[in-house]
Amino acid sequence: MAFRDDIRRTRAIVWKDLTTERRSKAGFSAVAALGVTILVLFGLALGPDGKALQNAAAGALWLAILFASVLAFNRSYQVELDGGALEALLLYPGSRWAIFAGKLIANLIFVMAMLVIVVTVGIVLFDVRIPAQWPSIVGIMMLGVVGIVALGTFYAAMSSRSRAREVLLPLLLYPMLIPVLLASMEATKAFLFGDLLSASGAWVQMLSLFDVIFLVATFLAFEYVIEV
Amino acid sequence: MSPAPANAFGPPKPLHAAFGWITLLFFVFTQAYAVATSPADALMGHLQKIMYVHVPSAWVEFAAFGVVLLSSLYFLWKEDERADLLAAASAEVGSVFCGLTLVQGMIWGRPTWGVWWTWDARLTSTLVLFLIFVGYLALRSFVEDPHRRGQWSAAVGIIGAINVPIVWMSVKWWRTMHQIQSNPRSLSPEYLRGLLLNLAAFTLITAWFIWRRYEAARYERAAEHVSQAAALGGYDG
Question: Nearest by CB to A217, which of B128, B138, B162?
Fold first, then answer.
């Protein structure tokens, strides 16, 4: 049962990464604090007009999540590299995709947890009226975060082991994530303002399509980037 | 690792120069022909002439990125170092033409639309494509190990190319929902002939640029191999 073994490996990596984060707490607190700080900066740049803030809330929230989560992606490999643990991880038997899946799921949980904090603060700071369709917004946030984390985890596997990793990851990642960001921002905005044009359907499809394509592509390509 | 090319440090080949000169002459001819034969446009006047450099630049930019995609796939499949170098050469040339396309578009847009930039689907997605390949080239310059550089940039090149239609689609929808018209143009035959000739000329120029850049990359790699071998004490002339 090779597949079941890989699932167990994946689970072990998720557990290991999350335990490391839980025990050191500083990493998560710093990233979440940065997300909140970015929101405050957006508020200062766009405010203090309440109407303008409400209109910009969706965009500001997504950008804050993006900027803060990029730090999480590099961290996820940096912790391994600092301990010289990546080689050991690669030496263990089993499929490479299990490593990617483990890192991806751990990052997903990390970013979701951060998202809860950032969004809560955003709702307060930007005076967001929570609409009746709020479960749809939660769904969009999940879809958007999956897209961000899939590509982020993939690119960080390279950037964290290159020179100039701080600049390389955003440079590679941000342009690639433009479709995800556009779709997430527009769908969130549509639901926040009642989705009168029923514009959100197309964006949700777009997000799901993006997630599927890039999950498959990164799972296939990860083997090539982690080997060397 | 493929061995260094036999003529790695030989003199430049006469064929290169001949191809280059013929391409240049052909390009001058097609530009002159297009400008001379096309009447002034009813709306744009002679501003329309920028089409003969703008549209071909956009075409060869896509063609060059197509080469990046194909040679990246081939590199991952066969591990042939030459495919990696070809991808690098094409990405450089493609980025230059992508930048040119954007600048020419702005030069045309300023008198036509009254603004240097508009968030049109075509403009925006071209800009995003440009940024994706700037990232690709940055990755190449930040990774020293040739094998690692090849593997990584091939993966980034392929995934970047997959994203091109998705970026296009998303920006188009984004525009559609904001209800701003772009202006489609149809083309009459007296413009078309000049355009097609220039497409051919630009294709030749691009092929020449990529070829020269590829040759240069092979020399660089050959030099790397030699210095590596010398560092290991194994190189004897």
Answer: B162
Contacts of A56 (CB under 8 A, 6+ apart): A42, A46, A126
Mean pLDDT, residues A128-145 taken together: 87
Q: Is B139 on the interface with A (CB under 8 A)?
A: yes
Amino acid in position A159 = S
Give chain A's domain count. 1
ipTM of the complex: 0.86
Q: Would you list the DSSP string of A21-56?
A: HHHH-HHHHHHHHHHHHHHHHHHHHH-S-HHHHHHH
8 Å CB contact of A172 and B156: yes
Between the alpha carbon of residue B136 and those of residues A169, A221, B72, B118, B149, the distances in Å are: 11, 15, 12, 26, 11
A 170-209: CB under 8 A from B: 171-172, 174-176, 178-179, 182-183, 186, 197, 199, 202-203, 206, 209
- Give the residue extent of every domain in chain B: 14-178+202-217
Cα dist from B29 to A2, B26, B198, whole Å: 64, 5, 9
Asked if A151 and A222 touch (Cβ cutoff 8 Å), the reply is: no
- For A95, the domain range is 2-227
Q: Per residue in A29-48, pLDDT tens?
A: 989 999 999 999 999 998 78
In whole angstroms, what is the distance from residue A101 CA to residue A94 CA? 13
Are the beta carbons of B170 and A162 separated by less than 8 Å? no
